[in-house]
Amino acid sequence: MNISRKRFLRTLGFGTILGSLPQSGLLHSEAMQQARAAARGMKIKEIEIFHYDIPLIEPFTIAIGTMYAANNVLVRIRTDSGIVGLGEACPFTPITGDTQDTSIAAAKDLRTIAVGKDPLAVESLIKQFGALAHTNPSTVAAFDMALYDILGKVASLPLYRLFGGDRSSFETDITVSLDTTEKMIRSAKEFASRGYKTIKIKVGTDPDVDVERLQSMREAVGPNLNFRIDANQGWTVAQAIYALKRMEPVRIQFVEQPVHRSDLAGMKRVRDESPIPVMADESLFLPADAIQLIRADACDYFNIKLTKAAGIFNSIKIAHIADAANIRCMLGCMIDSRLALTAAAHVVAAHGNITFADLDGNIEHTVDPVIGGMIVKEGIITLPEGPGLGVDVDPAFLKRMKKV
Ligand SMILES: [Mg+2]
């Protein structure tokens, strides 16, 4: 029997809907027509790459290295219809292995791939970037966030709304980097006085020193400040189990990456014996790593970073994988400016399974060249309501940066 499409839809009950849509209604309004015309056939016209250098007030030290400046890379993608998307790469050499130089080299290759392509076809472009997601994840992340910025601007929605999220503000912690116990206590007290409810403390040195330091810090700041700790792979399995058992009375939410990133069996042993939950950070870059961690039963939580996951696209994938495995996530950062931090904050706001945030990458930056973007007050991040990422970079600052 032949049946027309219209009749078929009517049999499904769509007749009333079809019949009630006026030709001059919302779907045919001028605004909608313009939006469709803008999106149809859009091409990437130009991509600018900048050195994005921000000096630090104090060097940032973790168990496996020190960063003396934020030598980041800024990417500005312009479409043929004049829409501009911004992205930031934050190569954190001790963890990601890339540098500003390798990021710029990768960015040039990505530019060659992307120019002339449809900026809204984010998935397709990420696929074309291929294995650069493994070698230069932070550079791919910069392109990825610039593409999402364009997508949000075309849709006239802030990114978190485009992803279906509904919470425009949430808590972040703030990090106490490795230093003398006295200096670390001073930082913790200062952060508490600024209204932060949670601090993340770097550990992963001599286990006895770490334990005694945490005991002194708890004594100095009292019981109400939440503690998280991050060993950045600094301990052996035996050291981790020893230290974490001794740290139990200090009351700690979780420990990030107690042992080497490749030792998933060791992570599981720590998890089995530790009274403190274990979060994977350096063991987790791309979505396939999330699967490996779940298979190995190696952790309680994931720390997702745009810089490791090569951007928003993969970060969301990891959040979904984690959700299905009943693993809650944190969104973390490197020493990003408020540009990449805002991109990460949109991802937090979009996903109920991301229950922790550690978006404080710019605390040691001497300047904040970002206009708009997320704001942090007393440990609470609030997202901008402008379309896309809702950020811009001060043109005067950018003028001083070297363009590639
Ligand atoms: Mg970490």
Q: In percent terms, what proportion of residues is strand?
A: 15-25%
Q: In the CATH hierarchy, what is the class of the largest domain?
A: Alpha Beta
Spans where pLDDT lies below 50 across 5 or more residues: 8-23
The unique ligands bound to this protein are:
magnesium ion
Q: Which fold name corresponds to the CATH topology of the largest domain? A: TIM Barrel
Can you give the mean pLDDT? 92
Secondary structure category: alpha/beta
Largest sheet: 8 strands, parallel
Shape: globular
- What CATH architecture of the largest domain would you give? Alpha-Beta Barrel
Number of domains: 2
Strand line-up across the major sheet:
5-6-7-8-9-10-11-12
Q: What proportion of the residues is helical, as a percent range?
A: 40-55%
What is the number of beta strands? 16
**What is the CA–CA distance across the termini?**
64 Å
- Report the total helices: 18
Rounded to an integer in angstroms, the radius of gyration calculated over CA atoms is 23 Å
Assigned CATH superfamily of the largest domain: Enolase-like C-terminal domain
What does this structure look like?
It is a single chain. With 404 residues, the protein is of the alpha/beta class. The chain has two domains: 113 residues, Enolase-like, N-terminal domain (Enolase-like, domain 1), CATH 3.30.390.10; 233 residues, Alpha-Beta Barrel (TIM Barrel), CATH 3.20.20.120. Helix content is 43%, strand content 21%. It is built from 18 helices and 16 strands. The protein has an eight-stranded parallel sheet with strand order 5-6-7-8-9-10-11-12. It has a three-stranded antiparallel sheet with strand order 1-2-3. The chain has a three-stranded antiparallel sheet with strand order 4-15-14, covered by helices on one side. Helix 14 links the parallel strand 9 and strand 10. About 4% of the residues have low confidence. Bound molecules: magnesium ion (MG). Magnesium ion binds next to loops.
